[in-house]
Amino acid sequence: MKEIILIKNGELALKGLNRCNFEDILIKNIRRRLKSLGEVTIRKAQSAIYIEPKEEAFDFHEALNRVKLIFGIAGFSRALVCEKDMTDILEKSPEYLKSTLENVKTFKVEAKRADKRFPLKSPEICRELGGVILSKYHHLKVDVHNPDITVFVEIRDTNAYVHAEQIQGAGGLPVGTAGIASILISGGIDSPVAAWTMAKRGLRLNAIHFASPPYTSPRAEMKVKTLLSKVARYSGCINLAIVPFTEIQDEIANNCPEEYFTLIMRRMMMRIAEKIARESGSLALITGESLGQVASQTLPALVTTDAVANIPVLRPLIGMDKEEIVTISRNIDTFETSILPYEDCCTVFTPKHPKTRPTLESCSEAESGLEIDTLIEKAISETLYTYID
Ligand code: ATP
Ligand code: MG
Predict the structure, then answer these.
(1) Which atom of ligand 1 is nearest to the CA of 189?
(2) pLDDT tens digits along 18-30
(3) Is the domain of 148 the same as that of 276?
C-alpha cells in the first residue's frame, strides 16, 4: 500500500502574499533534512505539503522523527494513498488501519472534501467507511463525541488520503524566513535554548564560541559542538566560529580591577561577536541571558554590555525562570550535555565580588588599561571556522 507524509503548515497559512515564499523555504528545509533517507517527491497543493517516497525501502519511522523537528509545521500525518474512488477507499482503509483499530474501542470517521466534485458528500463518506470498519472489527463502536480515535478521509486534488493520527509538529516558522543571526554559545544550559528559541521564529543560525585553552579543555569545545549539533536537528546546519580568548582573559586579569572581570570579558565578547556576525551576514546577536540570573545579567550590567555592540542583541530568555529554561532544555535534549562538568571560560575568572551596578563610565575606566582594538583584531584573525550539521 502506498503511503505519504501529509503536512499541514500551521502559522504559514496566515502569511498572505509571503506564503509562497515561506512554503518554498519550508520545502527546501524538508528536502535537506530527508535527503539521506533516499529520494522523495515533495509537492504543495491546497495549503498542504505532500512527501512521497520514491523507494520501497524508505524508512518512514525515521522520516517522521525528522519531520517532527522541522519548524514551520503545525501537524502532519502518515497517510494511505487511495484512488479518488469510494470502492478503493473502502477496500484499502480497514486493512491499512488494522493495528490502530485493534487497539481501541471506539472511533469515528471524519471526511473532508477539498475537491467538491467528488460524488459523495462528507457525511456519506463517513457513513460508508464507518459501516465497513464496523463490519470488519466487531469489537468497535462508533462514538461521535469522544472517540478513542478519529479516522480522517481527505479527498484532495489528485488522490484521497486516509489516516488516523494527527502528529503535532514543531510549530514556529521555517528556518531561513527571518534572516540570519549569530548565537553566542557557551557550554551552559541557556545559550542552546536561546538558539533553539530563535530558530523556531525562522532565524538561520551562525554560532560564535569563545575558547580559552588551556583554562578550558578540548572537551569543553567538543561539548559546544555536541550542543550545536543537537540544536541543528531543528535549525539545520550552523556555521561555528571559535574565537581564541585566552590572551584577552589574561590581559583583563592583569590590567583590570577584579570586580569588573566578568563585565569587561562580556564587553570584549560583544565587540568581537559584532564584527564576526557582520562578516558572516548576521543581522543580530543572540545570547542566553536572563534578567538577574547572575551578576553580569542585572539591568545595569546588560546596559554596559549592550553599549559596546552596534548591532541588535536578541535575548529570548530574558524574562524566563531557570526552571522554564531547563524544561525546554530537556525537551530539546540539550540538558544532559549542558550539565557535563567541563570548565567554561566565564567560570575560570569569576570575581569574588562582581560589580552588579556598573555604569558606562566606570566600565570604560576599568578597561582603560587594555589595548582593546589590537586584542580584538588579533582574536578575529586567529578565529577558526567549522560547520555543524
Ligand atoms: P549559559 O548557560 O548559556 O552558559 P549562563 O547563565 O552561564 O549562560 P553567562 O555565562 O553569564 O550565563 O553567559 C551569558 C551568555 O553569554 C550566554 O548565554 C552566552 O550567550 C554568552 N556566553 C557566555 N560564555 C560564552 C562563551 N564562552 N562563548 C560564547 N558565548 C558565551
Ligand atoms: Mg555560561
Answers:
(1) 2
(2) 777 888 999 999 9
(3) no
Determine contact, residues 388/225, Cβ cutoff 8 Å.
yes
Yes or no: say if 337 and 226 are a contact pair by the CB < 8 Å rule.
Answer: yes
CB-defined site of ligand 1, < 6 Å: 184-186, 188-191, 208-210, 287-289, 293-294, 296, 344-346
In angstroms, the CA 108 to CA 131 distance is 10
User: Do 261 and 374 fall into the same domain?
Assistant: yes
Domain co-membership, 55 together with 132: yes
Per-residue model confidence as pLDDT tens digits over 169-185: 999 999 999 999 999 99
Range of the domain at 381: 180-388
Rounded Cα–Cα distance for residues 189 and 313 (Å): 19
Nearest ligand 1 atom to alpha carbon 293:
6
Which of 171, 202, 225 corresponds to the end of one domain? 171
What's the domain count of the chain? 2
- Ligand 2 midpoint to CA 368 (Å): 25
In this structure, are 234 and 284 located in the same domain?
yes
- Nearest ligand by distance to the CA of 289: 1
Q: Can you give the pTM of this predicted structure?
A: 0.91
Q: Name the residue at shortest CA distance from atom 8 of ligand 1.
A: 190
